[in-house]
């Protein structure tokens, strides 16, 4: 009886189940197989002892579960496997043809690729996966390079730390810090004041304020290390402002020990107006020489959008004198705006204060913005260029002489 039961199961699995799967007869096949198996088992159970009888409900559940697994495996898997294999073959062909195809693709991505409605959609999806894979590779490469640079920097720091351990280097650094602090303390009593106007927080974004604070920190360190430093004033400075929070981030505990003057008052309330000069690139007046008796004001503002006229309007509102650096007089300007960073302005003003040499001072202007220095003012060069252009156009010598006499009346007289 057991052999007959096993034979019946093999016949059902080999012939009936594939036939039913092809023609969609799952329910009828299940009922038929259940009646056949139940009838055989019932006949077998009659000959068995009471201790060997089976629980029919449990047996039905097991048989139903096994039947569903077998049908799903035999019906769905071969089609899906064949379609996935065909999709992988097409991907390999496209890769050999030189198209943008990802190297590694998961089964979910392959299924979405198969569900694309058109060939162009499939190409776009594969290109998207290819670019995503390249982006991940580039990110990984950058992270590896960053780790390597970090390890190299740590090695260099360890090497420099070993050199700094010598007593002479430590003594030298401590004595230089004391000398710089002594100069800054003297500048607070005898030095020329330099004002940073801190009233432009509303005109800038958070990122621009952080950049402004970084430039001011560089300016303060440059001023502290100079031979004759300025007495720096932070005017219109408010506590718990964004400026204040950024300065605390940079200086931390040293913020309260800086040898500078910080006040919420305006500079017109501290200094006389006739001594104040507001430095702005929008001023129509050009600065000719550095005046040691004047008090220069620098607007603490970094604007990526280059808001013209903001600092000039502030100076006019307060009735102050304005001045701009003579960049066009000494530099052949090529590209970019004439707005400089705050640390560059500090370098220029310190050099002018020490040497009164514009050529040395304007060396701190970024070289990408100008072509070079000129010996003559740019206006005279433009006049000579106009004369050259007239010669190229073929005008007469008399017209050239008249033009030259107008431009240089003292040097040349018409006959």
UniProtKB/TrEMBL annotation:
<dbReference type="GO" id="GO:0070131">
    <property type="term" value="P:positive regulation of mitochondrial translation"/>
</dbReference>
<dbReference type="InterPro" id="IPR025812">
    <property type="entry name" value="Trm10_C_MTase_dom"/>
</dbReference>
<dbReference type="GO" id="GO:0052905">
    <property type="term" value="F:tRNA (guanosine(9)-N1)-methyltransferase activity"/>
</dbReference>
<feature type="domain" description="SAM-dependent MTase TRM10-type">
    <location>
        <begin position="180"/>
        <end position="372"/>
    </location>
</feature>
<protein>
    <recommendedName>
        <fullName>tRNA methyltransferase 10 homolog C</fullName>
        <ecNumber>2.1.1.218</ecNumber>
        <ecNumber>2.1.1.221</ecNumber>
    </recommendedName>
</protein>
<feature type="compositionally biased region" description="Basic and acidic residues">
    <location>
        <begin position="141"/>
        <end position="153"/>
    </location>
</feature>
<dbReference type="GO" id="GO:0005739">
    <property type="term" value="C:mitochondrion"/>
</dbReference>
<keyword id="KW-0809">Transit peptide</keyword>
<dbReference type="GO" id="GO:0000049">
    <property type="term" value="F:tRNA binding"/>
</dbReference>
<keyword id="KW-0808">Transferase</keyword>
<feature type="region of interest" description="Disordered">
    <location>
        <begin position="139"/>
        <end position="158"/>
    </location>
</feature>
<dbReference type="InterPro" id="IPR028564">
    <property type="entry name" value="MT_TRM10-typ"/>
</dbReference>
<keyword id="KW-0949">S-adenosyl-L-methionine</keyword>
<keyword id="KW-0496">Mitochondrion</keyword>
<dbReference type="InterPro" id="IPR038459">
    <property type="entry name" value="MT_TRM10-typ_sf"/>
</dbReference>
<dbReference type="GO" id="GO:0160106">
    <property type="term" value="F:tRNA (adenine(9)-N1)-methyltransferase activity"/>
</dbReference>
<dbReference type="GO" id="GO:0005654">
    <property type="term" value="C:nucleoplasm"/>
</dbReference>
<dbReference type="InterPro" id="IPR007356">
    <property type="entry name" value="tRNA_m1G_MeTrfase_euk"/>
</dbReference>
<keyword id="KW-0489">Methyltransferase</keyword>
<keyword id="KW-0175">Coiled coil</keyword>
<dbReference type="GO" id="GO:0032259">
    <property type="term" value="P:methylation"/>
</dbReference>
<dbReference type="GO" id="GO:0097745">
    <property type="term" value="P:mitochondrial tRNA 5'-end processing"/>
</dbReference>
<keyword id="KW-0819">tRNA processing</keyword>
